[in-house]
Amino acid sequence: MKTFMDKDFLLQTETAKILFHDYAAKMPIYDYHCHLDPKEIYENRRYKNITELWLEGDHYKWRAMRANGIDEYYITGEADDYSKFEKWAETVEKLIGNPLYHWTHLELKLYFGVDDILKRSTAKEIWEVCNRKIQNPDFSARSLIEMSNVALIGTTDDPIDDLRFHKLLQEDENFSTTVLPAFRPDHLMAIQNKYWAEYVEKLGNLTEVEITSYSTLLEAIDHRIDYFHEIGCKLSDHSLEIVVYEPSTIEELDAIVVKALNGDTISMKESNQFLTNLLVNLGKAYSQRGWVMQYHIGALRSANSRLFQSLGANIGCDSMQDSPVAIPLAKLLDELDRDGNLPKTILYGLNPNDNEVLATMAGNFQEGGTPSKIQFGSGWWFNDHIDGMIAQMKTLGNQGLLSRFIGMLTDSRSFLSYSRHDYFRRILCNLIGNWVENGEYPNDTEWLGQIIQDISYFNAQRYFDFPLKMNY
Question: Domains of the chain by range and CATH?
Answer without folding.
Answer: 47-134 (1.10.2020.10), 148-464 (3.20.20.140)
